[in-house]
Amino acid sequence: MSETSAIVAETAARIFEDLADPQTVNQAKDEGWQAPLWNSLEESGLTLAWVPDALGGAGASLADGFEVVKVAGRFAAAVPLAETLLAGWLLSEAGISSPAGAMTIAPSRWSDDLKIDAAGVLTGKARNVPFGTRAGHIAALADGPSGPVVALVKLGDVRPTEGRNLAGDASVEIAFDKVKAIAHSAAPVGLDRQRLMLLGATVRANQMAGALETVLAITTRYAGERVAFEKPISKFQAVQHNLARLAGETAAAVAAAGSVADTFANGITDDRFFLEAAGAKIRVSEAATEGASIGHQVHGAIGFTKEHILHRFTLRLWSWRDDFGNESDWAVRLGRMIAAKGAEELWPLVASR
Amino acid sequence: MTAAIQFDQLRLPPECEKLRAEVRAFIAEETEAGIIKPSGATGGDSFSREFSRKVGAKGWLGMTWPKKYGGHERTFLERYVVTEELRVANAPTRLHFVADRQSGPILLKYAPEHIKMKVLPAICRGECCFAIGMSEPNSGSDLFAARTRATKADGGWLINGTKIWTSNAHQADYMIGLFRTSAPTKENRRHGLTQFLVDMKTKGITCNPVYQITGHHDFNEVVFENAFVPDDHVLGEIDGAWKQATSELAYERSGPERFLETYYVLEELVRVLGPDPDVRGAEGLGRLVAQLHTLRRMSVSVAGMLHAGKEPVLEAAIVKDVGTIWEQRLPHRARELAAFSEPEATNQVPFDKKLAYATTIAPKLTIQGGTTEVLRGIIARGLGLR
Ligand SMILES: Cc1cc2nc3c(=O)[nH]c(=O)nc-3n(C[C@H](O)[C@H](O)[C@H](O)COP(=O)(O)OP(=O)(O)OC[C@H]3O[C@@H](n4cnc5c(N)ncnc54)[C@H](O)[C@@H]3O)c2cc1C
Asked: B298 near B7, Cβ under 8 Å?
């Protein structure tokens, strides 16, 4: 990690520690904690890290942004930070300035079908739009008359349905019923649906890796504290082996997510990025399935309560598997790519970095 | 909340990619010449004096060792590239592999100078095969139960007892053996074992084959009857072998050989599924490739951290745990995915043959070099649980 990335990560971690401590957030009676957190993230420039100065952002590097995303995952805070980062990136790619405030992004599902005409009028439906009731704007990638178009839509101009993911975060359906974008511009060459889904997958994989780190940390700590049969449960070999497996899954997630972030941050966008991003979303989602389950097993009943913070991480881990392509979906795409290339090309691709 | 597990991102430097091209060119020549058999994957013929000598001549053995011992003072990352390319190509590396990875580094650290000057250059030339003599009939995971004795004699030691599961012993020039020189103490049951360099031609050593479930003869029972080992063949501290084991372990645990041993099955699976697999085949293949890719990135990252002077002990143990489980599961997964393939698929015959072999050897992958359970104990210790 570069020095600036480390400083950015530290800044983000401090803000979350101060304003989104999982224990405090979990006990909060309402969502009053969100505004101070968001304001602080915004003031420090983290929400628009991927937007250049000229377009209203902080102009940080891609690598810095991924560090922020991972830290956000470690706190599993229910604010649209990752979504705003992604939205800002998408708008910037098309030269559109980012508005102030929270944003979200569409599509996050392969099945979404968004169209835009030459006048910038959008039709179609986007499902499972994350934080789709909380953001001020939506950055969308839609099919235009001559290729993909990036559009900025005011949330007030559409009517999202109610909907939540497993963790209770808004995840809504938005119908674009002849909605006029407040800005739109052709996507640059190479930026298509797949590229957006790959980057979304990369961002989610990094959040998930961060969340798994926390699951490992709190589960290991709990095993050392909880006494059964007159000793800490961490002294039972069965528990140790469960934690070793959780460490293995966390390690796989951290390595895969870090690797794809590094790939994209270094401007690699060919088949190697496809392998890295699809591979990371697949492997990190598998790790989420296994790892979160182990976290619950080691915690026993206390981890099954609303009161305990474990669910903040495990339920988001399980939900995030589905955003920007789930692991089955990416696996089919990756498998088809490998099959089409043929057996001789497999190792050279795997060993290309 | 600090991160306990770290994987630094590493892009292999340009000298590695240049080297990779050289290794691939060499593999292509050797395949052409029939020395490397990509269709083989049957293990029994993986010992080749001719091939190992060629690898030595290329400068790809003892790559990281000092030049005065025949080494090449190259980086661990370069060694990594050679190892992974030879492994994926199914090259016959059995003669030199243990010596290059494990035994040489022990000698470098603990052998007297004149022994180093004699043995290490032979390893680098690819002429020297090593065996590891640790396990005994009543001492496997619990190494400290070893009973084979070394008793002090004039100018050296007399060895008596039996080692077992000793890979390569019947072909090896040397063994690095772990023998009991004192009884364990009440305070420290690990006390009393010493490492020795043993010339396998020594009188009083008998090698009896033990056939594996593949039908092959790879490991042995090695019986010592008053076999004499001179004083200068003691490696390190007498009675203190337990202190010596740790530092090289990270290299040993996290290399590409920890997840690539059944790789050939995956390649053959791609052929059997064909260029346009159904959804089930594509998904299964995609997951396997994602898992392999992740393992390799973990392993490369550990190599990079070692190269940078860090000590990723926990990460290395994790690579071996996750990697060996993966390579063990791979043939079974490939079998499931190929269940509906066309019996006339052009490579059905090689696929079946390689699958049969990989399925048969799979059980050993989570036993040799320390079982999964032992490894998870080490990971648990790294997590601070014990
Ligand atoms: C192909 C192959 C090659 C080998 N080559 C060599 C070689 O060259 N040199 C050499 O010295 N040895 C070699 N070995 C031996 C290998 O190191 C041992 O098999 C291994 O250390 C396990 O010992 P064991 O077989 O005695 O099993 P045991 O130790 O008896 O274990 C049996 C089972 O009990 C479990 N177990 C044991 N202790 C514990 C514990 N504390 N907690 C939980 N579970 C436990 C094990 O995990 C395992 O599942 C080789 C083995 C194989 C399969």
From this structure: yes
Domain that holds residue A12: 1-77
Give the C-alpha separation, B379 to B386, whole Å: 10
Does the CB atom of residue B175 touch ligand 1 within 6 A?
Answer: no
Residues from chain A that touch B296, judged by Cβ atoms under 8 A, are 350-351
Chain B residue closest in CA terms to A281: B290
Say if residue A72 is in the same domain as residue A170: no
The total number of structural domains in chain A stands at 3
- State whether A255 and A109 are in the same domain: no
Which residues in chain B have Cβ-Cβ distances shorter than 8 Å to A330? Answer: 286, 290
Task: Detail the DSSP E strand segments found in B168-298.
Answer: 174-180, 193-199, 205-211, 217-230, 234-235
**Distance, CA B365 to ligand 1 centroid (Å)?**
11
Give CA–CA dist A208/A326, Å, rounded.
Answer: 13
**Residues belonging to chain A:** 353
Residue in this structure with the two tokens 């390649």, named with its chain if needed? B267
Residues of chain B in contact with residue A1, where contact means CB-CB under 8 angstroms, are 8
- Ligand 1 atom 48: the closest Cα is on which residue? B371
Q: Find out whether the beta carbon of B374 lies less than 6 Å from any atom of ligand 1.
A: yes
Q: Is B166 in the pocket of ligand 1 (CB under 6 A)?
A: yes
* Claim: this prediction has a pTM higher than 0.95: yes
Beta carbon of B94 within 6 Å of any ligand 1 atom:
no
Per-residue pLDDT of chain A (353 residues; tens, 9 = 90+): 788 889 999 999 999 999 999 999 999 999 999 999 999 999 999 999 999 999 999 999 999 999 999 999 999 989 999 999 999 999 999 999 999 999 999 999 999 999 999 999 999 999 999 999 989 999 999 999 999 999 999 999 998 998 999 999 999 999 999 999 999 999 999 999 999 999 999 999 999 999 999 999 999 999 999 999 999 999 999 999 999 999 999 999 999 999 999 999 999 999 999 999 999 999 999 999 999 999 999 999 999 999 999 999 999 999 999 999 999 999 999 999 999 999 999 999 999 98
Domain boundary pick from A26, A61, A77: A77
Its CATH architecture, for the domain B132-242, is Beta Barrel (2.40)
Within an 8 Å CB–CB cutoff, is residue B308 touching chain A? no
d(CA A238, CA B68): 49
Q: Give the residue, by CA position, lying nearest to ligand 1 atom 41.
A: B374
Q: Residue ranges per domain, chain B?
A: 14-128, 132-242, 254-382
**What distance in Å separates residue B211's CA from the closest CA in chain A?**
32
* One domain, residues A114 and A127: yes
With a 6 Å cutoff on the Cβ, whether B371 touches ligand 1 is yes
The CATH-assigned architecture of domain B254-382 is Up-down Bundle (1.20)
- Distances in Å between the Cα of A38 and the Cα atoms of A16, A80, A105 are 10, 9, 18
For residue B85, pLDDT beyond 80: yes
Residues A201 and A336 in one domain: yes
- Asked whether this complex has an ipTM greater than 0.90, the answer is yes
In this structure, is residue A87 part of a structural domain? no
Q: Tell me: the pLDDT tens digits for B201-243?
A: 999 999 999 999 999 999 999 999 999 999 999 999 999 998 8
Interface check for B355 against chain A (CB to CB < 8 A): the answer is: no
A284, A214: one domain: yes
Helix (H) or strand (E) holding A139: strand A137-144
Amino acid at A125: K
The 10s digit of each residue's pLDDT in B239-284 is 999 888 655 667 778 899 999 999 999 999 999 999 999 999 999 9
Backbone torsions φ then ψ of A275, nearest 5 degrees: -60, -45
Give the count of Cβ contacts less than 8 A between chain A and B.
189
Which residue in chain B is spatially nearest to A345 when comparing CA positions? B267
CA-nearest of A275, A343, A349 to B264 is A343
Q: Which CATH number applies to B14-128?
A: 1.10.540.10
